[in-house]
Design a protein that fits this description.
The chain is of the alpha+beta class and about 450 residues long. Helices cover about 50% and strands about 20% of the residues. The protein contains 8 helices and 12 strands. The strands form 3 sheets. Strands 1-2-3-5-4 form a 5-stranded antiparallel sheet. A 5-stranded mixed sheet has the order 7-9-10-12-11. The protein has a two-stranded antiparallel ribbon with strand order 6-8. It starts with a strand and ends in an 8-residue tail after the last strand. InterPro entries: HATPase_C_sf, HATPase_dom, His_kinase_dom, HisK_dim/P_dom, HisK_dim/P_sf, Sensor_HK_Regulatory, Sig_transdc_His_kin-like_C.
């Protein structure tokens, strides 16, 4: 510590001088006015306590050292007399740091205040401050008392100003609280009204959902019953038409033969529609339960290659690429084959020239089975609509083949039943790719 000033206190009147000198030292090193007063007050309280005999024998003398240690102003008070530490006051926030050492014959009190960084004191500055302090003459106790009174009046004025500010802030806060409470009351009412509306809306939605479920179940039952009832007469019409056209029956005229062929074709289309409706009704009713087993994809691909090849025309090549071994998936072989056959038929139906290709590959824990054609393609905004029941893209079949609009919805339901997903990527004029993603372990949780 670089010492700046030394004082010796012998009587209580010397405390006034110590207070004055503390303020002068604090001002010299760059402390703000409030910090000057705090430090001077702290030293004054320590000195006054040491030289009074209210709580015990007072100190006979005390030395005070002022110095600078780094970025702090240090004040060290060495009081002569035992047991002085218990008599010292609590200085609170008057100083930044306070330590007391109580010995058998002396008590050492150390106080410090931080010096502002802007002061930037060096060795030459400290020498100058030491010389200036030595040249200052101490004032009388009366002068110091007057200075304390001025400081007290200034503190009282600041306290009064703070009190007025606090009263103003309290009034503003009270007014704000009134506004907040009014807003809270309004929002609470609006929220309660909104909640009642939401509850009513949920009740209406539940009712509508129940109605939709009932309508869906009724539609499914209707499709199943009507389709079942239609299948027998349609099959009978096809059989009768075949008998009329049989070589052993009476010969038909050319006109009659054309009409019988028309009857057979229309009845065949109607039978396919009835079968599709029955399949869709079974899928929607939840009566289809997969028969889980380990399915060899290479075997399924081989069977489809043989059964679907007959549908391919000379201008369209059917390419079925066997997956690499091991190619085992936990699934229902019949339902899986039905989905893939549907996709292959769909690709051949809407491809006039080029190829229809089916391949499969592992993707982590899943199998990706893709059917890609070089047909007319589908606009992006129709990618989901083609999975709606009875929807058909207008004018999309260049081969002239007709459909019911039920094949893709049925295929997607079966894929979902098998624990997977069916998606499409396509652009007009660039063909389509239908992707079946299925878990290798199956949708039943088996492995």
């Amino acid at each position: 510590m670089t010492r700046l000033l030394h004082l010796v206190l012998r009587t209580e009147s010397d405390v006034f001088v110590a207070r004055q000198r503390a303020r002068e030292v604090a001002a010299a090193v760059g402390l703000e006015r409030q910090d000057q007063v705090r430090l001077a007050t702290a030293l004054s309280e320590v000195g006054r306590t040491l030289f009074t005999d209210r709580d015990g024998p007072p100190a006979t003398a005390a030395e005070v050292w002022f110095g600078v240690d780094g970025a702090t102003l240090q004040v060290e008070v060495v009081a002569v007399g035992p047991g002085q530490a218990v008599r010292l006051p609590t200085l609170g926030r008057l100083v930044d740091d306070l330590t007391v050492q109580d010995g058998p014959t002396t008590t050492v009190v150390r106080m410090s205040r931080r010096i502002p960084v802007s002061a930037g004191l060096n060795a030459e500055d400290l020498d100058r401050i030491r010389a200036d302090l030595a040249a200052l003459a101490p004032r009388t106790p009366l002068d110091e008392m007057a200075e304390q009174n001025e400081q007290l009046l200034s503190a009282l004025e600041e306290t009064r100003a703070h009190r007025d500010d606090l009263a103003r802030l309290n009034a503003e806060l009270e007014e704000t609280n009134h506004g907040v409470m009014a807003l809270y009351t309004q929002l609470s009412g609006e929220l309660e009204e909104t909640n009642r509306g939401v509850v009513a809306l949920y009740a209406e939605l539940d009712e509508r959902s129940a109605q939709l479920r009932a309508a869906s179940e009724a539609k499914t039952r209707f499709l199943a019953n009507v389709s079942h009832e239609l299948r027998a007469p349609v099959t009978a019409v096809i059989g009768l038409a075949r008998l009329l056209d049989d070589a052993e029956s009476d010969p038909l005229t050319e006109q009659q033969a054309r009409e019988v062929a028309l009857i057979r074709g229309s009845a065949g289309d109607l039978l396919r529609l009835v079968n599709d409706l029955l399949d869709l009704a079974k899928a929607e009713s939840g009566t289809i339960q997969p028969d889980w087993s380990d399915v060899d994809l290479r075997l399924v691909f081989s069977q489809l290659r043989g059964t679907v090849r007959a549908m391919a025309t000379g201008a369209v090549e059917l390419v079925v690429v066997d997956p690499e071994q091991p190619a085992t998936i936990r699934s229902d072989e019949v339902l899986l084959a039905q989905v893939l056959r549907n996709l292959l038929h769909n690709g051949l139906k809407f491809t006039a020239a080029g190829s229809v290709r089916m391949s499969a590959a592992r993707d982590g824990d899943d199998w990706l089975i893709q059917v890609t054609d070089t047909g007319v393609g589908i606009a992006e905004e129709l990618h989901e609509r083609i999975f709606e029941e009875f929807y058909q893209v207008p004018g999309r079949a260049p081969t002239g083949a007709t459909g019911t609009g039920l094949g893709l919805p049925y295929a997607r339901r079966l894929v979902t039943l098998l624990g997977g997903a069916l998606t499409v990527t396509s652009e007009p004029g660039a063909g389509s790719t239908f992707t079946v993603r299925l878990p290798a372990g199956g949708g039943d949780g088996a492995s």
